[in-house]
Amino acid sequence: MSQVLLEARQVCKHFGGVKALSDVSLTIHAGEIYGLIGPNGAGKTTFFNCLTGLYVPDGGGFELAGKPLQADAPQKAAALGIARTFQNIRLFAQMTALENVMVGRHVRTRAGVIGAILRNRATREEEAAIRRRAEELLHYVGIADRACDLARNLSYGDQRRLEIARALATEPKLLCLDEPAAGMNGAETEALKVLIEGIRRDGTTVLLIEHDMKLVMGLCDRLAVLDYGQKISENVPAVVQKDRRVIEAYLGEVPEDA
Amino acid sequence: MDTFLQQLINGLVQGSIYALVALGYTMVYGIMGLINFAHGEVVMIGTMVAITVIGMLTNLGVPVGLAAVLALLAAMLVCMALGWSLERIAYRPLRHAPRLTPLITAIGMSIVLQNLAMIIWSRNYLIFPRIIEKTSHEIGGAYFSNVQVLIVLLAVASMAGLLLLIYRTRLGMAMRAASQNPQVARLMGVNVDRVIAAAFIIGSAMGALAGFMVGSYYEVAHYQMGFMLGLKAFTAAVLGGIGNLAGAMAGGLLLGIIEALGAGYIGDLTGGFLGSHYQDIFAFVVLIVVLMFRPSGLFGEQTGERA
Amino acid sequence: MKHPFLHALLRLPRHSGVLAVSGSLLLLALPIVAMWGGQAWVRILDFAILYVFLALGLNIVVGFAGLLDLGYIAFYAVGAYTYALLASPHLGLHLPFWVILPCGAMLACLFGVLLGAPTLRLRGDYLAIVTLGFGEIIRIFLNNLNAPLNITNGAQGINLIDPIAIGAFKLSGRTDIWVYSLNGPQKYYYLLLLLCTGVVVINFRLQHSRIGRAWQAIREDEIAARAVGINTRNMKLLAFAMGASFGGVAGGVYSAMQGFISPESFALNESIMVLAMVVLGGMGHIPGVILGAVLLAVLPEALRFGVVPVQQVLFGKVLVDPESLRMLIFGLALVLVMRFRPAGLWPSPERQRELAEAKS
To answer: C34: which DSSP letter?
Structure first.
């Protein structure tokens, strides 16, 4: 592992009196699949929301590829190269699968009102490129045959894939997946694993929140474990798995002789 | 004459009327997220019915005080029936329709009621009969009448009654539950249909009372009077944080006072450039300014976004 | 499908050319045909098209970006008064229309941005009431800005507004073309038709563009839209400003066409009417919006002609004041259409499908 892609420094976030995140620091290297796990309510999604600009952290901050990440709004995070999916899928339900991915190209394209009205050559070419790229991405995640279906009519697994395609359309440096395998059956999860590995192989770093331990352990290069808003462990899966504090966090107090 | 005190008194009276009407908007909005545009018209019909009933009864020789009480009751009954039928006929079938659909229906109902009133009560200004002998009193250089005192007292009493209903009865609890989350309330055994109907009925009764007050305060009525009144009252509801009962009351009073003070001082403030006919803009200017700085109204809950 | 014939006609590509040509011919011939019924009918046509123009402008705001604007007519008023002030004896200015119309559009746009910038982050219904309040503020100012400095001439309004003219060719009065003599309303019809075609094209192209997709995305899920990098605030502001500019242009043409304007023409009722056109026709669906605008513009007029004779036939005399009866019927029509076609008379195919699914 070489270059540092994302550096989180002592990120804090509280809601009223509840400390959702306290001093969470972690480092993600370029080309990694990095897992973020922890019991329910540990602060994983809050961390995502801070990273992707939906929340503004109360303390600490992020550095993306050595530059401070000043994303106080999600659209800025997306423009800087951080894309995400949502725990409870958020697609544009009344748009087709293809259109959903085309919307993902928004941040990397330029055509404005004048272009849209005049339909000049540059705009037409850009539009064609958007469509082409969107079709490629649908093919890439394996749902090319559903391109013209409304997003809401896709199966659950396909909706997850579509959300990933939409996120990839923004050309992220870092792709953040929030429980992508939730609600999937074994075969779907297996296919998802192949997809995520492919995404990494093609050069995108992946940050993954997931509850499916088999998937996490088999997929991630490194893991961080959150509990009550604090990072209690960070290492390769084999080590994390044996970490006493992690086991306690998941199973409660473990007897000495266990 | 003390302008400040005088306008404060006028504003308080006007504000209690706004507050009563605002309650109707806020209850319905709190539970079903609908701006019931026709509510102003319900208020107007309350005034009209009261005029008709007082006229009929006094012609029959009933003493004017008794006639007024009966007229108020009649107006409330008519408006409650009207509110109930509005909900039943116009809005209930649209519970699951796209968001703007019920709004257009409400606008349609408002047009229907206004023109119905014009057909029944003509397009002329009607005189609201004088119920009690008006007496004027002085306090610190400002004047107030017994009618004004009565209006404020009646408004305070009915609002207190409403708060008791909402916070001390089963129906009130069901209404609060439904306004928090209709789906969950339904699962908990709350009959949401009944709650919504109740919101319309209670709101309309308050509206009828407000209509009666407006009539006896200004002593005229007109088929278009409900429109601006409704608009201001809705503004008051938003000002106080829509869906929030106490907020609607506070918003109403605040709006009445701001308007009265604004009308009293605008001439001085702008060096005579703008006069008191700009009274109507205060409501909206205040509204825009408040919403800019507190998007959920003065007393509304700040709800964060959830991912 | 309820009308298989019509549907087939609209879908089949080999008929679309024929349809377009015959449709255009019909639109071109309409004011000449309507003249048989009297000039009043031509004026009704003018207003129908003006409303189509307005409704399509508002459609960008409400239908595309999903922002509920209840004060749209304020921008129309800004355009109308800009024209009236710059081309009438009131201030003694007589600038040409090609200077004023863009001025009006820009001024309306500016007002749109000034109003939109601070308020667009508000929840939908709050935005509705703020825009409504703005509409009232504008109207009250128009009504009262006659003293101490007479700017708008108050409730009397502004009279003797210049017609639109290119050199010596004026759009008011008669012009002989070969054997036919076109009157003012007919000429304005053609101007409005031209403008309207423009706005239809703009609507259509915007809808199927990067911008249009972004608007739809915001309408569907604002948080997801921001997460893929759409600057939702700017996009909403863009829709708001564009809608306002179209309102400004429409107002200018209205001013010139009528030759007289007063604050009365810009009351809240008008905003509501235009919004009703958009929703009744089928929000966001361009043919639906056009249908809604034409229907609502013509229906009250048609009722005006129908209400009195029908009463005379039924009761032998006029029982009910025709003005209120026609508004009553208009209100009922709104309620009934919403009851039985909640997505509008002619919603987009996706909306139709969605409703059908919800029912089954």
So the answer is: H
